[in-house]
Amino acid sequence: MPGKKSPDKIRADLLQIYQALLDHFGHRHWWPGETPFEVMIGAILTQSTNWKNVERAIANLKNRDLLSPGKMAELDLAALASLVRPSGYFNQKALKLKAFLKFFLAPPISGSIKKMKRIPSPLMRQRLLSVKGIGPETADSILLYALDQPVFVIDAYTRRIFTRLGLAPEKISYQDLRNFFEQNLPRRAALYNDYHAQLVELGKNYCRKKPLCAACPLASSELCARL
DNA sequence: GACCAGGCACATC
DNA sequence: GATGTGCATGGT
Predict the structure, then answer these.
(1) What homologous superfamily is domain A36-146 in, according to CATH?
(2) CA proximity to A155, closest of A108, A120, A203
(3) CATH number, domain A7-28+154-221
(4) Under a CB-based contact definition with an 8 Å cutoff, are residues A80 and A98 in contact?
(5) Of A47, A171, A191, A227, which one has the greatest count of Cβ atoms within 10 A?
(6) For residue A227, is pLDDT > 60?
(7) In this complex, which protein residues place their C-beta within 7 A of any atom belonging to strand C?
(8) pLDDT digit string (tens) for A99-114?
(9) Helix/strand/coil percentages in chain A, nearest 5
(10) Is pLDDT of A120 > 90?
(11) How confident is the model at residue A41 (pLDDT cuts 50, 70, 90)?
């Protein structure tokens, strides 16, 4: 990060932003999902999609008792696509789910979250990225929210908010922005978990393309460059 | 009816 | 490496 600010100042700002969001929204208790497997499926389904629509898709699977790796793997592609239809891009997502299930059920993971957790996080990330349909954000969401690894998830909200705050250039790469957080925050999965969740909440409610700055929880903190 | 939502793969320059 | 495009439902 190009910065006139000292590392100490950057770290203080990052923690101050988190605290302001935590005070305003309360702990977010993410990820919304009952099991690590459900979290991973949700991570794929939520790509560029409103979470409400993902919930409908997951409900379709749950209501038919199909939200399990074995049962989903047995479904034919058209049936799976039909079930996840509400989440949008349903043909693409059915293919992505199939690719992930194949990866998840095959050795060395063999359908075991424990085995997944045992694989060192950078290697696990690399393997997730090799699955068609899993990109950087989805891989990191799985690492953080399903496997409890201290990996900071970057999404469109994170980029927009930190650009607005003047803390990141607009065209910063995924990896550079992720490094910015991981190098300036204590390496704790629980912190990364709720910090990202807070940013999504902020992004959904205030820091949209048309800024709604007046009521933003960061307005009074004098952190937002738009104020 | 336009715009947006917790991306990604692929083509092209 | 940067930029453009297809994928698609459902809410505002």
Answers:
(1) Hypothetical protein; domain 2 (1.10.340.30)
(2) A203
(3) 1.10.1670.10
(4) yes
(5) A47
(6) no
(7) A 48-50, 52-53, 56, 85-86, 88-93, 171, 173
(8) 999 999 999 999 999 9
(9) 65, 0, 35
(10) yes
(11) very high
